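User: I'm curious whether this sequence folds into something compact or stays loose and floppy. Could you predict its structure so I can see for myself?
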Amino acid sequence: MAIAFILQKSFTTSVIIGATDEEQLTENIGAANCTLPDSLMKKIDEIDQRWPSPTP
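Assistant: Here's the prediction. I'll summarize afterward.
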């Protein structure tokens, strides 16, 4: 879901994925074909706004 989320953001130009086995790689690639509903995207964005830029 995280990969699908970030791929739907307009500012994303690429995503670096990590997989330790073929199953994870297949799941990660499959996320590129997943579209999250707008309602879910909005909820995730609301959570993200609570803690903007958590890294220094």
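Summary: Helices lie at 2-7, 22-30, 38-50. The longest helix spans residues 38-50.
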